[in-house]
Amino acid sequence: MGTDTMIDIDQILDEILDEFESYDGSVESGARIIESNQIRMDILKDIFAKEDMALSTYQSKMEMVLERQGKLIESLESEKAELMRMLEQINRRNKVVTSYLTKNRKSIFVDKDI
């Protein structure tokens, strides 16, 4: 394993960690980060497959990457749950309106006393 490979791996891991710092809490930002980091992860996977090296050299940075990735995914799942809750409320409102409109038709009752 050459020094260049070690520098490349360190640089890629730093870029991944830096990318997490750009997360602004939006779904779009989260998706962009996951997509760009996936490209970097694929590069790392190729490097580790070609080179015979111990992963323990990069363990602390890799643990940081996994931790931040987990937090990002949790945040996105939370946002998804909130959006699903809001969608459910909208659907309930639509059902109420539809129900009201269909029940609001004038009913004709037969008065037996007449």
Describe, in short, the structure shown.
This protein is mostly helical. The chain is built from three helices and no strands. The model has no long low-confidence stretch (mean pLDDT 84).
What does this structure look like?
The chain has 114 residues and is mainly α. The protein has a domain at 3-78. The protein has three helices and no strands. It has helices spanning 3-21, 27-50, 59-103. α1 (3-21) runs antiparallel to α2 and α1 (3-21) packs parallel to α3. It is rod-shaped, with a radius of gyration of 27 Å. The model has no long low-confidence stretch (mean pLDDT 84).
Question: What descriptive keywords fit this protein?
Answer:
3 helices, 114 residues, single chain, mainly alpha, 77% helix
Mean pLDDT across all amino acids: 84
Cα separation of the termini: 101 Å
Strand content: under 5%
Number of alpha- plus pi-helical segments: 3
Rg, Cα atoms, Å: 27 Å
Q: Say how many strands there are.
A: 0
Largest sheet: none
Which parts are unreliable, with pLDDT below 50 for 5 consecutive residues or more?
Answer: none
Secondary-structure class: mainly alpha
Shape: rod-shaped
- Helical percent range? over 70%
What order do the SSEs take from the amino end to the carboxyl end, as H and E? HHH
